[in-house]
Every structure is written in structure tokens, then in C-alpha cells.
Amino acid sequence: MDYTWHFQIAWDYRAVFFRGAAITAQLTLWATLMGLTLGLALGLMRRSPYFLLRAPAATFVELFRSTPVLVQLVWIYYSLPILTGLQMSNVTSAAIGLGLHSAAYFSEIFRAGVNSISKGQWDAARAIGMSYAQAMRRIILPQAVRRMIPPFINEFASLIKLTTLASMLAVNELLHEANNLINNTYRPLEIYTVLALAFAVLIYPIIYASQRLERRWQTHQ
Predict the structure, then answer these.
(1) pTM of the full predicted structure?
(2) For this UniProt entry, which segments traverse the membrane (predicted)?
(3) Phi, psi (rounded to 5 degrees) for 35
(4) Which of 8, 39, 169, 201 qualifies as a cystine partner to 90, CB 3.0-4.6 A?
């Protein structure tokens, strides 16, 4: 196949990629903050002895883990305003959708991390008169968080890639900006190649940091 590559086009339009990367970073940040906050609450609710707390949390987690992210984003953007009358921008809808989706996975990381702490730690906390909340805050969570960080980082890296789905809501993140650029330049191979490299530059350092942390903590156990 006789094809002449012209990567100069990607360089000439580098501002487009920077603009898309800024939106991608914004979506990732807001979705991560929502996911961590809601995920912690859901993880603790799923460990609750009370059915009225466990059941809604389990339903939320399984619903968002068992349905496609794209369907969730489209439903929040188009259906939620019809049901509630609340109008949201495409960026806000995408951030909320990604945040709710990530919360389901973050909650499982929280729950698994807490469950990994030995029962003896709980018994020791109760023996010195601590309540459940005190034991969780002072003893269990500080130990569990260390074990949670590598999977948290991996989930964060996955979330960056999931932001490309926001292009279906016309959010000007990296993929959407790349598609617009392809429509103007008719150079899809160069644009998608640069797009792939851009995501690799964003995500690989995160994955590398996760692997380094995991190896470091394994050697200190």
C-alpha cells in the first residue's frame, strides 16, 4: 500500500490536542473525586450489619458494574432531564456519569481493602473500648489504604481511557477533538496515531508508579 505519512499536520494542530487534553484532565479529575467520595460511602455501607444500608449500596454497585458505561452516559444526559427536569451540560453529564461508574469500582476496592485487615485488628480495637467508627478511622482504614493504592491507581488509569466515551455527548475531549481534526484534514492515520501516543504518555507513568509502589511495599512486608 502506497501511503505517505504527514505527521507535520499533527504538529501544526498541536493546540487542538492540548485543548482536548485539558478537557480530558478536567473530566478525569471530577469523576475521580466523585468516585472516591461516593465509593468510600458505598464500600462502608456494603459492610454494614444493617440490611437497609447494604441493599441500596449493593444494588447501585451491581447496576453500574453490569451495564455499559456508554449507556450510562447517554441515559444521564438524555433521560435524566426528562425524568427530573434538571438540565445539565454535556461536560457535567459526562463527569457525573463517569463518577458514578467509577464509584462502583472504587467501592469494591475499599471493601476489599477493609476486608483484607485481619479480624484480630478489630478484636484489639474493641478490647480497648473503641466504637466501630473509631476503629475504622484510627486502625483499619490507615492500614487498608496502603493496600488500596495500587488498584486505585489502576482504576484511575482506566478512567482516563473511559473519558473518550464522552465524545458521544459532543464533549471536546481528546477523541472528539481528534475526530474533528480528521474531518478537516482527512489524515486519520496520523491523527489516531498521535492520539494513541498522547494517551500512552498520560497513562503509562501512572501504571508505572502503581507497579513501583506494589513492588516496594511487597519488599517491606
Answers:
(1) 0.89
(2) 20-44, 152-171, 191-209
(3) -65, -45
(4) 169
